[in-house]
Amino acid sequence: MDDLKDLYQQMILDHNQNPQNFREMENATSKAEGHNPLCGDELTLFLHVENEMITDVSFLGSGCAISKASASIMTTLIKDKTISEAETLFEQFHSIITTGKSNGDMGKLAVLAGVYKFPSRVKCAVLSWHTMNNALHGNTNLTTTE
Amino acid sequence: MDDLKDLYQQMILDHNQNPQNFREMENATSKAEGHNPLCGDELTLFLHVENEMITDVSFLGSGCAISKASASIMTTLIKDKTISEAETLFEQFHSIITTGKSNGDMGKLAVLAGVYKFPSRVKCAVLSWHTMNNALHGNTNLTTTE
Amino acid sequence: MLEVKNIREDFPIFTERADNFVYLDSSATTLKPQTVIDAVADYYSKYSANVHRSIYSIGEKATAEYEGSRKKVADLINADYHSVIFTRGTTESINLVAYAWARKNLKPGDEILLTEMEHHSNIIPWQICSQETGAVLKHIPFDENGELELSQHEKLFTDKTKLVAIIHQSNVFGTINPVKDIIEMAKGVGAVTLIDAAQSVPHQKVDVQDLDCDFLAFSGHKMLGPTGVGVLYGKPEILEEMPPFMGGGEMIRTVSLNESTWNEIPWKFEAGTPNIAQAIGLGSAIDYINEIGLDKIHEHEQDILTYALEKMQKIPEVNIYGSADERGAVVSFNLDNIHPHDLSQLLDNDDIAIRAGHHCAQPIMKKLGVSATGRASFYLYNSKEDVDRLCESLVKTVKFMGS
Amino acid sequence: MLEVKNIREDFPIFTERADNFVYLDSSATTLKPQTVIDAVADYYSKYSANVHRSIYSIGEKATAEYEGSRKKVADLINADYHSVIFTRGTTESINLVAYAWARKNLKPGDEILLTEMEHHSNIIPWQICSQETGAVLKHIPFDENGELELSQHEKLFTDKTKLVAIIHQSNVFGTINPVKDIIEMAKGVGAVTLIDAAQSVPHQKVDVQDLDCDFLAFSGHKMLGPTGVGVLYGKPEILEEMPPFMGGGEMIRTVSLNESTWNEIPWKFEAGTPNIAQAIGLGSAIDYINEIGLDKIHEHEQDILTYALEKMQKIPEVNIYGSADERGAVVSFNLDNIHPHDLSQLLDNDDIAIRAGHHCAQPIMKKLGVSATGRASFYLYNSKEDVDRLCESLVKTVKFMGS
Ligand SMILES: Cc1ncc(COP(=O)(O)O)c(C=O)c1O
Ligand SMILES: Cc1ncc(COP(=O)(O)O)c(C=O)c1O
Ligand code: FES
Ligand code: FES
């Protein structure tokens, strides 16, 4: 049960219940779809990028608490960041989720470290981030976590 | 090995080496094909029937010793017999092959009793007889021992 | 009620996973009794030969066991031995009909009648087939109880209806559809009928002669048998007329470089080395079921179902989908504001396995307006205590997720 | 040479059937090591859940093992993970290509090039396909050694050639065909290539990237694995373009009543509950083979083959079919005037299992002018003593049958 509490940390449960930026965006400059083939859940990500700056980001979708919280946290982190800052965050996220280790300056991202112990849920957490990364790089094909 | 010697009795080996009536018949009044789906072997039976009398019978085919000998013996038994005599022989044959028991007046047929102990070879012995029975009754569909 | 304690002893997973493992996903696939596992292992360790045309003892034994299983299947559904085709599962069985029967018999404008509650396996083959033949798909709707809405049947069953393919028991609602009536309606307009019996054959007596259906499909792994084996029953006279599905060894009589002739039914439809061990395992599963008795199993499940529905309905956050009068022991549900995948993860932590997802029935999900549901399904090894455990964990989950 | 004594201890059938059982029918299906039998039983007794979308521990374990086996297959043939499709066997693999690739890509007048030494599984699917598409079948002939006659290749490989589907190792002659050269010729005319590797993958290293074939098919049960599982390898870019074969669960991304979209490769081609236990068993068989080493197995078989050919040729009544330079450990033969079915029955009496029949290659039989042959095939658990036993029994049989 302890592992499980690491997975469903309070911040994750909060973001799940009150996801940030959970809405459609009319004037998005890019939009991308993500799909987790393991569970069938889907996510749509909207970005508004101006002069290398992410001025707005939002998402919609039908995922589990982990995927919803991960997406919600991500939107709060990358908003008003430059593309290159978002890329750094993506790398930090990736390192946490694949090693379970975070260090001091990773901030909110640290709550996702618990997912590491549940390999099948890693894809839930990763879905929004991969979709974002693809969208940033102009790849609007369906992103899948497979 | 004893069972095996019952199966491959001398008379069977002889008929296999020198099958009787192993030839095509030009003026057959009926012709029928038999097929053993278990092994893929095939047999063609030719009959010449006049006034309820089997005046000639012959066969061709690619079977094993048991099927060849059984067919060969059958041809010698039913030649110059009436249809109803052939039917009686067919019944005697059937009883031997399914019970392994023969009685005194079954003559040559008795050598086939040993087949009874090899259920998978029963079909070999039966092939020609079933084909003959079908041919006699005007059923020229493919006979199979299945 | 069955003596569940004794039954659980026949299933090694309960020893492996500690005795209090609660498995509530039999609609997806069932657990396996030791006798089935042994039957499979016996084939591999004692007579692992190919079937048909092997003229040596272990080959003959393999053939006899493989064909013996066909006989057991035939007896189970009261069918002729020659009308039982072994496939990989329900899905392949239905595809076989879609390829070998439908493509030859349907033309543009013909109608294929399905229901709105089909499993993807009885949807996609007909969508593909409809694209290729020009036949049109129609659907019998279901109502808010998860029951088929047949009042409009005269509009649905017409001269154009050439095939009626319907699910016997819904894997989402549990609804047992009135297939006998529907088959009658289909016959009234001269349509061929296919019953997706994946969820019925394991749980109740299904008699193809009584139903008088033309085709019936089910899977071994949902009835205590191995994965990789299923059955297509077809009326012999229809099977005789059909061209083969796949080509290869076993299904032929003669082959030359440019032309071939086919084996008799059912072998005409079994190309290549068959799923020998799996068919033998299915035969052993049927033996096990027969020993306990399908009627008793059905009764046992019904008892649990009644208890489960009553108890789950008392949890305010639980929403149950489907309330048909005639139904099997399958309960689809959601907890307010909790994604079923999280639910399933949390229940797993309490050693309870339920399914969460769209259950290969996305059209039902769409109509219900949900992306997924949880589903608890019961079989002979489940007990009322399992229901108690489930309900406790549901309450705990609601609390944990703070919804 | 391998330590056959130790290897035989891994195969329970040698304990079951007394140690001196001589099994010479591995080309039809192989015996199974205990590790494979255990891998299958483990799935059934410890984590018998359905794969994909099961969010509970035994389901996740089943998915990991099933997909892990796919990785093992991919590594074995040096393929990309996504290019490995699980099927029931070689036969289904070839039919998948005939249905999903060929029917969409071939038109009247196109040519399908086969050889005269194909197995029925690589004949019938193309005969059926040719009837449906109007494509024409051509055949590379074989000569009196059982080797392909490629001198006329410029007549056979033309602009019209759209598909070249050939057997890698003959299951009758043992001939290992120069598939790499043939693939090159096919590419020269822009044809797609399919290799029937049912008899090669179990016995030698096959590298799909080195061969550069488009499709490759083989069976689990011929390489120490379970029945009911096989593999189709396809180049990802070709698989991506292909429509699905069967429709059902697993192979979809979204489904509505009238329309659906497909899952990614390879899952697009795996409809319905897969042969889970069988794929896992195949993975275990690959582990076993890798532990011993395919190279060593190949060498061992070659030793036995040389010995067998030498010894059998000394028996005057023995007629051997095929004498290719490059060949696997398969010997087809007949005894003067003795039907091979009788031979096989008599050898069985001495605990020796050989195959007798047309070996699903009737066109070869026709060309040889025989209705059937005997066939002895060897694998890692065979030894030179097995050859001695065979030869003794052959001599005895000649005497017994009085020929
Ligand atoms: C060369 C060859 N191709 C295809 C097959 C068919 O394989 P399966 O029966 O496993 O589908 C076989 C085996 O019988 C074979 O030897
Ligand atoms: C009603 C129904 N039909 C068809 C299927 C498909 O069966 P399988 O996956 O064994 O092919 C299932 C099971 O998933 C089912 O519940
Ligand atoms: S379970 Fe689907 S995204 Fe987490
Ligand atoms: S083995 Fe074929 S007829 Fe006897």
Describe the structure.
- The complex is a heterotetramer, with two copies of chain A (146 residues) and two copies of chain C (403 residues).
- Chain A has 146 residues and is of the alpha+beta class.
- Chain A is built from five helices and four strands.
- Chain A has helices at 2-7, 10-17, 65-78, 83-99, 119-136; strands at 30-36, 41-50, 53-61, 143-144.
- In chain A, strands 3-2-1-4 form a four-stranded mixed sheet, covered by helices on one side.
- Chain C contains 15 helices and 15 strands.
- In chain C, helix 4 crosses helix 11.
- In chain C, 64% of the residues are buried.
- Chains in contact: A-C, A-D, B-C, B-D, C-D.
- One pyridoxal-5'-phosphate sits between chains C (27, 89-91, 119, 121-122, 167, 171, 196, 198-199, 219, 230, 360) and D (248-249, 272-273).
Write the layout of secondary structure elements.
The complex is a heterotetramer, with two copies of chain A (146 residues) and two copies of chain C (403 residues).
Chain A: H1 2-7, H2 10-17, E1 30-36, E2 41-50, E3 53-61, H3 65-78, H4 83-99, H5 119-136, E4 143-144
Parallel strand pairs in A: 1-4
Antiparallel strand pairs in A: 1-2, 2-3
Helix pairs in contact in A: 2-3, 3-5, 4-5
Chain C: H1 4-9, H2 13-16, E1 22-23, H3 34-46, H4 57-76, E2 84-87, H5 90-105, E3 111-115, H6 124-133, E4 136-140, H7 153-156, E5 161-167, H8 179-188, E6 192-196, H9 208-211, E7 215-219, E8 230-234, H10 236-241, E9 252-255, E10 260-262, H11 276-292, H12 294-313, E11 318-321, E12 330-335, H13 340-349, E13 352-353, E14 355-357, H14 362-368, E15 373-377, H15 384-401
Parallel strand pairs in C: 1-13, 3-4, 3-5, 5-6, 6-7
Antiparallel strand pairs in C: 2-8, 7-8, 9-10, 11-12, 12-15, 14-15
Helix pairs in contact in C: 3-11, 4-11, 5-6, 12-15
Bound molecules: pyridoxal-5'-phosphate (2 copies) and FE2/S2 (inorganic) cluster (FES) (2 copies).
One pyridoxal-5'-phosphate sits between chains C (27, 89-91, 119, 121-122, 167, 171, 196, 198-199, 219, 230, 360) and D (248-249, 272-273).
